[in-house]
Amino acid sequence: MHFHHTRLTIGLLAALFAVVGLAPQAGAQSIKVLYALGATSTDAASPLGALIADKTSLYGTANIGGEFGYGAVFQLTKPASPGAPWTETILYSFTGGADGSRPFDTLAMDSTGVLYGTTALGGASGDGVVFKLAPPAISGGLWSYSLIHTFAGTDGATPYAGVVIDRNGVLYGTTIAGGKYGVGAVYEVVPPTAGGAWTENVLWSFSNAQGAPAARGCEPYAGVTLSPQGTLYGTTQACGANNGGVVYRLAPPAPGQSNWSQAALHSFVAGGAEGYAPMGGVIFGRNRALFGCTNAGNGSVFELSPPAIEGGAWTEQVIASLPSYSYCQGNLAIDPASGAIYGTASLGGANNAGNIFSLTPPSGGAWSFTDLYDFTGNADGAFPYAGLLLRGGVLYGTTNAGGNSNFVTSGGGTIFGLVP
Known about the structure:
Helix content: under 10%
Low-confidence stretches: 1-27
Strand content: 35-45%
Largest sheet: 4 strands, antiparallel
Number of strands: 30
Distance between the termini: 15 Å
Mean pLDDT: 90
Radius of gyration: 21 Å
Shape: globular
């Protein structure tokens, strides 16, 4: 196996390894398991979403576990001294009732430390909810749960994706089902004024009808990415002109208009060599390009470049072909300084338990692919469905299984750090 090493000064390398409590190893990258989930019957377990962070902690959701077994929101706090254990705290356990059930994806955090997220199931109609978790006024107190919105079908159903938040506190997300035609929607949830209720609006309903509506995609598994101009970008895993899903743009209403404008920027070909059915979203890279990965067929990492002239066609190119059955399902992460891209494959690697990879941008040639780490399915975990968080030169992520039980078919998953 070929390993790639990022060039760092000795002092910086030591500092980065100290962050996650790793000791450098000659000739290979190594992960540090920060916490093995599912340690008790009420612990969070089997995360499917990526992590977010503030200055001292990582935050995430777990699809199962918690006090009632319907999933939980957790916090993992960095130790005061390098090498000491990280501390996990369950911030909220879902009951499976009106408060929601089975959170699938990543949280969002506002400037005050309030967390926002979704559950795929539960709520009054069983179609999922959007929720809010406010930190305690006094350190060590209980977080406060609030139900923001309950989906009821026509306004969306089954939000596998989380939400993103804009500067005005408006939340944006997708549902894989529901909406006007039953095959997914993009929605916003607007915060209340003067103590009122949050308001949900459907911005776009996907359609699987023949012709133009289906060509714009349907059944979005991934959430949306918000541009500084307020435009939303995302993917669908189905429909499209070639039945392999699309990358789409959803632009805010033009002056004097009331409707958002949706367009498919690229259509994947079902069964095509480039891969298809993207389950992860897109991220912004250099020169306003979008980057993402496909999940089905010959999976790939792609770059979608904007047109030179406004209104022209976007240009897609495959920058890396992934090994068969790799299943890239999460969002990619990008280093804004170097342009390097990092991702996970849930079944990739030498042990078919998933791996972490990097792509180094070209200097006149092709992108350089490196397999950074292969999960074993034992104490290090297995099946990293979610993407990675790059923070302070360290990649943080989750695995869905392995960890405590030390074998791939069990265990509640792990939270890990890796210095690329």
